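[Solved] Which block belongs to which protein?

Original post:
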Amino acid sequence: MKSDIEIARETPLKPITEIAGKAGMDTQKIQPYGHYIAKVDLSQIDEEKIKKHHLILVTAITPNKAGVGKTTVSIGLALGLNKIGKKAIVALREPSLGPCFGMKGGAAGGGYAQVLPMENINLHFTGDFHAITSAHNMITALLDNYVYQNRYTEKGLREIRWKRVLDVNDRGLRNIITGMGAATDGVLRQTGFDITAASELMAILCLSRDLEDLRHRIENLLLGYTNDGKPFTVKDLGVAGAITVLLKDALLPNLVQTTEYTPAFIHGGPFANIAHGCNSVLATKMALTFGDYAITEAGFGADLGAEKFFDIKCRQTGLQPKLSVLVVTARSLKVHGGISEKEMTKPDMAALKKGFANLDRQAAILKRFNQSVVVAFNKYADDSAEEIEAVRAHCTNELGLDFAVNEAFVKGGEGAVELARTVVEAIEKHPSGPLNFAYDNNLSVKEKISELCRNIYGAAEVSYAGVAEKQIKQINELGIAHFPICIAKTQYSFSSDPKAFGAPSGFELKVRDIQLNCGSGMLVVIMGEMMRMPGLPAEPQALHIDLVNGQIEGLS
């Protein structure tokens, strides 16, 4: 089979104005970025239409390092729904350059279920990531200048909680010292970098309702504390207007097309292992405005991405999915059954069935949120009919869940017709009820963390480092204990041990630190060895990316 980039390159694209017009958009209210990409004005969102249309969440079992293909399934489902005569639009996150040039590669789908132009989407796209990086670091520069200018006055700060960001995996920047050199080179302090996907500005962009809400959230960004212990925010710094200016265009959702000319909104890109893992609220609402069915995804497994989608995004916006699709692969099941990733392509029915424990728990998590669930088996070429039938029988007979095979990677929309029909029938027969959140926001911080750790992850106890205890005291003093929780932990296990596959239980989770995200309105709880600035693997994907005869090669 041809590579992703070969398929993308051979697919003739349609002008983005044609894609927008056929979807029912006012083409006078889109801002083209070239011929095939556009930003869409927020005035096109219709709240009444949103209430009438169907939102579908795509999530997954705990992934192996290569992933389980949620994006491919999301795009494929949109293609399949259009194949059977439904009007469907997909809303996804923007890829980050970190994973693209690091371990995972691009995030534009795969095979014949891609969003296009994939090279642009995977690289600089419309500059949203760069805008967030620039805005975040502009705040840092202005903050450092404030500290420098007021270092000998009563206006000085005793503690700074704001770092810098970069859209590159670079472990060497996790911990740095700035202000070295002459006295005029700044104030000496220890700090570091997070990856742009972990910036609170990324979360703010993805949760903002409009430009006014964006500015209000920016004003509330907590930067540090004054000498008398009071919080110091962007509003206190006096630069919220300048930062809003840098992000005003980035706030607009990006419109592209799929390999079969289905409209797709690609906007925002927080990771689910270190942030809240969902594309922007505005892109989701745009997809719901123009599609009878809107498909979106949440990062990694249901325990991370789906939980945050429900407890943070849906809680803040009132969005209610009609159904959740749980993506599963034979490869990931076998890894959870004890097989190494090097051996996961080989038949092993015993390991496959042992891996059902992970599937069962992820499905139970979705049921806990009162979701109707369809299991989508994302088929690879090495999957046997026997393996597929074993998973089907387990899902239908043991779990009582609807099941469908997805072959969109190889067959495009035609390969997702079974999944599309199963989803439509499930929504018609037994749509999801009102969401049951994992915790009540009015519980204490520790009570909310405990609810997640025990009921979602399966932990027996939770412990706290000294700095985390200090942050909880600060949270209570600031009156923000009602904020929802955003767990930052490994995506490869329910526990904080990335090698604890399957469905471990009875373990301890340790809270190392808590980030107070007063702008986005959440508390980021960091567990285990999770780093908000990833490193590069021994063989980065960048080694395979090149420009050959004017064409980009190696993107996937």
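(Second protein starts here: sequence line, then its structure tokens.)
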Amino acid sequence: MSNSTQNFDAIVIGAGFSGLYMLKSLRDRLGLKVRVYEAGETVGGTWYWNRYPGARCDSDAYIYCFTWDKQMLQEWEWSERYPEQPEILRYLEHVAKRHDLKRDIKFNTRVTGAEFDESANLWRVHTDTGEDVTAQYLIAAVGSLSTTNMPQFKGLETFKGKWYHTSRFPHTGVDFTAKRVAVVGTGATAVQAIPEIAQQAKHLTVFQRTANYCVPARNGKVDPEISQARKADYDGIVQRIRDSFFGQEHYFIPKSALEATAEEREREFDRMWDSGGFAFWLANYQDMFFSQEANDLCADYIKRKIRATVKDPAVAEKLIPKGYAYGTKRQPLDTNYYETFNKDNVLLVDAATDGAIEEITETGIRAGGKDYPFDIIVFATGFDAMTGPLKALNLKGRGGRTLDEQWRDGPHTYLGISVAGFPNLFTITGPQSPSVLTNMPVAIEQHVEWVSECIDAMRKSGKSVIEAMPEAQEKWVAHVNEVVNMTLMTGANSWYMSANIPGKPRAFLPYLGPAGVGGYRKTCDEIAAKDYEGFVLA
């Protein structure tokens, strides 16, 4: 432990997609002295931590990558439409090596706290390895889904078998051969993992609290001709995804589902279903998210697909979502998910019909008064999304105020990038920015570039402190809520709505702007052009 405090221009927390690009941008474009802290033993963020069976991206690989390295867009070859975790991690390792990023990253080091020193206008940052450093700028690149949600199940400590959370899977993997396995949860992660585990396990029991609307991924090799055409058109692709609603080449059908004839609708639904991926979610009729009647037509199509796929009508009924509109929760992409429930070695235990989990016992799980014996339990219970990773940093702003205090009734940010009372703090894809409602690399690049340009402008104009104005922040919070309240999104108990964490104030976490990430980009650029309207610069 050194006695002398090291000083940096910027400290970046996290070395996933966000942290790597932030480091590249500040160090190589602006010439700043930057230090990145990363809790993992190498780069990758999400793709370092999440190693559960079947873990893969669910945006098409040709747009799930950095667009700022034009040469690499041409050179890098993805093996599939939706590559698996090891391949994405290899890609990020390659980026780190190619741009010599690791020399400024401290691995196996967790930031345990930071406070803004008002007399010196600096952030004082502390780590679990005993380092104390200062920086003018503190940039949280901690990811939106990085703080594990592990519900407090009664009796877990008594379980004699092995248990794992999907986001902290052993790097050596887990052998499920000849084992009785439980998977708790049926969200996007579980939908990827369940079919894979079912192929190995002697017996798999899935504990479902809420049934999900799944649409097919249609993963596979990409036709080399399509791949070549994309490489030839990368400038056009980058422009389109940057201007788009969801950071993808998906566009709503510009009419109401109710205006289309039944035959026309069925044709469109079939087309989207067959093309796979997020088309059914993000390129459906434009009123799907606004009109319950239109939404019901889309939902009904998926329900028919479930009933046609799952052979046992009683099991199919349990897998039919109830009580919320289609598309208002995170869309899982499935590869043989529903087919898995046709296997003799797979059992579905539904909280509503079979009884909820009461406790974990020495030998397994008790649910609905019945004991189920297991050798291994896999918890696919998700994350304390968006606000969780930022609160975990123990940041203190002006007057020693914590984010916890500031966000008692939900997040309050300006643009999802800045928090009043926390000068020179930037949150990459923070709450109340498009983040998780877009293809993440597109949202990340927009934030990193905006923050870099902001810091560059400050340095050129001799300003050393930037801070969101409370009134601009509250106006933004009101706008975020006003937009989402026009949709069906608020009716679901989703992690978008903070509903997966007991006691977490109910609030919509991302930003569903009128024109998505493309419109949000324009808003941010306009604010910058007006000398950072809504911010105080000193």
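Accepted answer:
You had them paired correctly. Confirming on the second one: The domain at 6-147+384-537 is CATH 3.50.50.60 (FAD/NAD(P)-binding domain).
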